[in-house]
Amino acid sequence: MVNIPHDTLGLAILIGAGLTTVHPHPIPCAPPNSLSAQGAGIARILSYTSHGNLAIALLARDPTNLSSLAEALHSSSPDSIIETFPTDTQPLNVSSAFSALKAHRSFKGLKLKIGIFNVKHSSKKPFLEKTHEEFTKSLNDYDGGAFAFSQEFLKLLFEHHGETVLADGKGKKVTLIFTGTLSVRMLAQSLAKEYSEKGVHVVHAIANGSIKDEDGEDQRQGKTMSAEAVGRTYLWLSEQGPELWTHELDLRPAQEKF
Asked: Using one digit for the tens of pLDDT, what is the confidence trace for 169-228?
């Protein structure tokens, strides 16, 4: 039986948490030489009792990578609640992952607080070299994935909180954060227009520059962002009161060119 700490503040769902590299300069609270990802640093901040104190559902395509990531996170914070759900961004698979996490005993009694669509859009081909099939597949996988994730997130949100999250008059809300392309930005804007008054804080975060799960010289000199700094920013967004919500944020390290 999983014992959920009484002070756990809710549930965060992060899609796009796949592994990317190995820590050459591991951050202080991460296991040395552990496998890392952008999602790892974000998940640490959201899950640690000293920061977000949230239970975390990690979604990504590769089950082996997800298991390695969860193991690394648990080794640095044994009391954190972190569960994994392998899925790509196809609607049926995203729906199945949400069904699994809804039924998971680790999240019993916890209400949804944050959702993050962090799927990497990696195509770098010049326009004339890209085929129509590649272009439409990218739209389906990435933009369609953002749509599918948003629908499942909102359905779970209203299942947990009722039709209006703000109904209790205490400033309670749920935060949905997107990263990525112009089309995802338009989706975020559309959702914000429709759901802000119901207590859904929708954010589009533009990451200009590299994000690494490190705390080394490149981060101290402002050459690259640290994943934990991004996680702290996302947590800050989720803590904003209804008197002021940030809708769009440009994230960049100090030396990134404009």
From this structure: 555 789 999 987 788 999 999 999 999 999 999 999 998 888 888 889 999 999 999 999
User: Which amino acid belongs to residue 30?
Assistant: A
pTM above 0.90, yes or no: no
Q: SS3 letters for 86-115? A: ECCCCHHHHHHHHHHHHHCHHHCCCCEEEE
One DSSP character per residue, 14-44 reads: EE-----EE-SS--TTSPTT-EE-HHHHHHH
Whose tokens are 């009484």? That residue is: 6
Q: Which of 179, 124, 191 is nearest to 153 (CA)?
A: 191
3-state secondary structure of 4: coil
Q: Is the dihedral of CA 123, 129, 134, 136 positive or negative?
A: positive
Q: How far apart are CA 84 and CA 70, in angstroms?
A: 7
